[in-house]
Known about the structure:
two-stranded antiparallel ribbon; mainly alpha; globular; 74% helix; 12 helices
Amino acid sequence: MEKALKKYSPIFVLPTLLAFIIGFIIPFAEGLYLSFCQFTTVKNAKWVGLSNYKRVFTDQSFIDSLGFTVSFAVAAIILINVIAFGLALLLTRKLKGTNIFRTVFFMPNLIGGIVLGYIWQILINCVLSIVGQPLLALNKEAGYWGLIILTCWQQIGYMMIIYIAGLQNVPDDLIEAAQIDGASAWKTLWKVKLPMVMPSITICVFLTLTNSFKLFDQNLALTAGDPNHMTEMLALNIYQTFYARAGAQWKGLGQAKAVIFCILVIVIALAQLKATRSKEVQQ
């Protein structure tokens, strides 16, 4: 039986492998090539070398979007994970109605980003008008915090479910041993629970990090980069460069930005995985 599985395993792997090659490897390789070209369509690409990449680093809008994206990502990652973990702790204490609360907190994750963006745009603009502040289209600070609130509201419930699964897998005998040794609830949390749920922390930080950097639809719906592109994140900046401007020079520039963006997210995500996995406890 084992020999038969080894013999025929390539047949079962082949469909997924072909889908991965056709859907990711080939488009990525073609996109990488086009980042060194000026083009309007794939068939009329003209090789221009590194000129597109040189233009990227002199494009102030890209630099500003990078800074805004990083500041947003740091705040969103911290808030989402801290609040989600706190809710997970509360909802694993065998309180009444925990299943209802889990459902309520998870539901925003089921709503599309565009829909969420427009819903929160209306809510935030209503609040701003009541307190006499400029609306989102003219208010950078409100746009920044509006994006963070929207992202937290959407993702906290999903991360909470992952943390709940991690906490439920912490062996009861470890917690009992800590309590017998006189450890307080705070020390039990830091010395027992957190180390044991590090795999869940690794997953949640990875998901929130990548989601925060590649945020697009919520940004487009909530602020569209207003005012004056000051709340424009990297994904939206690339979109605006590639699609909102006509001309071969803009297509190549947008493609170069996309390649840099992809490499940046991969490097940061791999560094995060290495850092958090090194702290995981072998069970």
